Amino acid sequence: MQLTAFSRPGSFWRGNLHTHSTLSDGVLDPQEVCRRYMAEGYDFIALTDHFIGLFDYPIADTVPFRTKDFTTLLGAELHSGAMENAELWHILAVGLPTDFAPGNAPHFRPVPGQETGPQIAARAAEAGAFVAVAHPQWSGLTLADARSIQAAHAVEIYNHGCAMGCDRPDGFSIADLLLSEGRDLSLIATDDAHFSEPDHFGGWVMVKATENTPEALLQALKDGAFYSSKGPELRDIRIGTDSVTVECSAAASVIVQGAGSAAVAVHGHSMTRAEVPLARFANSPWIRVTVLDAAGQRAWSNPARLERAPSGTPVDPRVTG
Questions:
Q1: How many Å separate Cα 258 from the centre of its chain?
Q2: Do 41 and 72 fall within a single domain?
Q3: pLDDT of 19-73, one tens digit each?
Q4: Is 315 part of a structural domain of the chain?
Q5: Which of 79, 218, 270, 291 is least enclosed by beta carbons within 10 angstroms?
């Protein structure tokens, strides 16, 4: 069984789902942000400025900056309600309608009576957006916080801005625990670019769709038909009863991870194909794949859930990402 990103028809389109401009706290205006991503070879971006009253609740109109080779998804980084650490929620919403109603978030501090994070996430999903929990490590997100966002399609597992600005880029711990509790989630890598530091062109998604249009990209994101990367390419992932076969650009390590401590790595030189045995994952309901190249850059698959025979042997895997 192939993962969805490799089994469905279409081409891979490279995009960044988390970007800021002068409409909130970014350095560059929306047109220049789009120009720079287009110049760097990206196929699309989502400009996701901070949706708070301080910036007049912006949803950037990037439609004028689309070309025949470059498109944009409308979106915002939503803020409302307090997490367990009393700080304001950060929730990424890509594919928002321009008339998405503001809540009551006048600034970057929680205020009494405003929507909770779960409520504004659910409202965004109902409006048609692809919803992701932003930078869990940077936010100080707890597992209880993460569990509360039932409307999330994804967890941000790598944030380049958080990597460069404070060395807190990670979301894997939260994502893996939610997967082990039965949540079906995809995993996204992003820039969170503000262009105030080297926070751009460092993490992206490769989305499989038949065309580079907002509608096709958004549906593919919701379907989990993509992988995330900082450099390496994933070309195919097939899950059999005994092993996972990974095809990729030249790699130094191919790692399969699962629930708890379950993980198996294959190491080599300039590997473009690796088979990883599944015996270690007898008690894991899901697996995901990481590829590392010789420079230490990574690419990550979406998770796949496994159906099992009574013996615990994986059979006929049900691929959800």
A1: 18
A2: yes
A3: 999 999 999 999 999 999 999 999 999 999 999 999 999 999 999 999 999 999 9
A4: no
A5: 270
